[in-house]
Amino acid sequence: MGEDRPIGPSKQPETPSTRHSKYYFDDQQSVFLVENTFFKVHRYYLTRESEVFRTMFSCPSSEHGQEGVDDSKPIHLPGVTTRQFEALLDFFYGGQLQRSIQVERPSSEAIPVTTNSAKKSSKGKKGIRTQLPSYEAKAQTAQSITFHATDVPQLFDLLSISTFYDFGLAREYAIRAIEANGGLDPIDKIYYANQCDIPEWLFTAYKELCQRSDPLEASEAERIGLTTAILVAKAREQIIRDQGCHRCVHRPMIWGSEEEEAGPVDAIVNSVFFDKEN
Fold this sequence. Notes:
Elements: E1 29-34, E2 37-42, H1 44-49, H2 51-58, E3 75-76, H3 82-93, H4 96-99, E4 102-104, E5 113-114, E6 119-120, E7 129-130, H5 135-140, E8 145-146, H6 151-164, H7 168-181, H8 186-195, H9 202-211, H10 218-224, H11 226-243, H12 247-250, H13 259-274
Parallel strand pairs: 1-3
Antiparallel strand pairs: 1-2, 4-7, 4-8, 5-6
Pfam families: BTB (PF00651)
InterPro entries: BTB/POZ_dom, SKP1/BTB/POZ_sf
Protein name: BTB domain-containing protein
């Protein structure tokens, strides 16, 4: 008789185990000190969305030990306020912003969003109202979001910290959400356009400021800077002189019905604020 053999499938050589490329999370937490407040949060969103934080966490430990392990050795975030860090964490974890947002998906063209991995787009159906389902969806649908008035300061906080630490998706969401809110004060738009590098906000803000009935207050001039305040005064004087009356300053243009008057004001704003030879 032949040699007995084991019954059943033959044993295959073992394949080495690997970590899943998408669903293997670094769940390590770190302690941050912002102003006088400790925060203990996961590193995951911070490292995924910001090259600054990826670099920070990849640095070797100092001779005094690793920072962020507990309250005695926190990671300091200078130049950041508690409110700003809260706004960033609320964005990641779905807190204040999530509770106050309703989305009405537009029936027109899709809204493109650039993420770290790919460009995405979304095209919804008219009349569908829902809560934002996820972190990525917030930036994708921000142009059609309605906010409570109390949310707007938090959006500016989110814009500031996301610009400072290069959180691209959070920054894009904040910009689109602020634009969707409408009726923003031109002083705020000028301030944040300069602080957060959003040049596309400047023209309409300058124009609105030059056409409003009230001159600049001292606090407003301080906020936008002396040079800009001088240029606003210069543009207002040119509008009055070139049109020969106060009508264009005291009554802003009504787009569509007075298009013939929009050209000169646009030209003055462009000449005063954007002509490098001026």
